[in-house]
Amino acid sequence: PSVQTPLRSRVRMNELTYNFDGSMMTLFERSGRALAIDLSDGRTLWTRTELMDIVHDIDANAGLIVVAGSNLVGDQWFDVNHRPEDRDAVVHVLEARTGRTLHTRREPVAVRWVRVTPEAEAILGLEDGIVSLDAHRGMVRWRNEAEFLSSSRTGLPMAGKFIVRGADNLLWMIDPASGTIDDEPLDVRGRLDRGFGRIEVTDLSQNFA
To answer: How far apart are CA 5 and CA 55, in angstroms?
Structure first.
C-alpha cells in the first residue's frame, strides 16, 4: 500500500529511509519498523516494530535519533485517500545505540521534517511553523509560527545557524538558540527555484555558498 506524507503525495509503506553516523546505520521503514546495525562488525544493535503507523522523516545526531510521523485515526487506512494533516502527529526521541525511547511527543499539526543539531536540539518543521525541542529532556525550547515558515520544505543545520527552506522556496536564517529570524531571506540571486529538490549550504565565514 501507499500513503501520503506532508512532503510527498505517494510513498510506499515498505520504502526505507536511513541514516549513518560513522559507527552505525539505522534503517526505518515507512511502516514504523526500524533496525540499527553496527558498521564495525555488521551485528544488529536493536530492532523496533510499530513505533508509529507512518514515518514521515528521521534524523540523528549527538547520540540521538528523532523519528517524526503519524498514527491513523478513526476509519483511516493505509492508502492515499486521506491527508497526513488528518492523522495524529507523533515524534519519538530514541537513544541511538540502544533504540530505547527517551521521549514521545504529540503535536497538534503534521510534522513535515525533523533535524537534530550537534547540541541535541531537535528542530521540527510543522504545518504551522517551526518548533525546537531539547531532545534530551523532551521540552519545547522555542516555537516560531511566522507565516512564511508554515509548510516549509526542509531545514539545514549549521554551526550556530539554521536555515529553513520555505514553501515559497525562499531561504530563511533562524537563530537556533532563540528561534528569532532575520528580517529578510537569504539573497540567492535567483539561483534557487522549485526545480531544486535538494540543496547543500556551505558556511564560508560570513558568507554562504
So the answer is: 8
Q: Are 131 and 102 in contact (CB under 8 A)?
A: no
Q: Average pLDDT, stretch 44-64? A: 96
Chain segment 140-154, per-residue pLDDT in tens: 999 999 999 999 999
Angstrom distance (rounded) from CA 21 to CA 40: 12
Q: What cell does 7 get?
A: 512532503
Query: 180, 173 in Cβ contact below 8 A?
Result: no
pTM given for the model: 0.89
Q: Is the pLDDT of residue 188 over 80?
A: no
As given in the structure block, the three cell numbers for residue 137 are 529532556
Instruction: Count the neighbouring beta carbons within 10 Å of the beta carbon of residue 69.
Output: 28
3 state DSSP class of 86:
helix
- Following DSSP, what letter does each residue of 179-199 receive, concatenated? --B-SS----TT---TT-S--
C-alpha cell at 100: 530505547
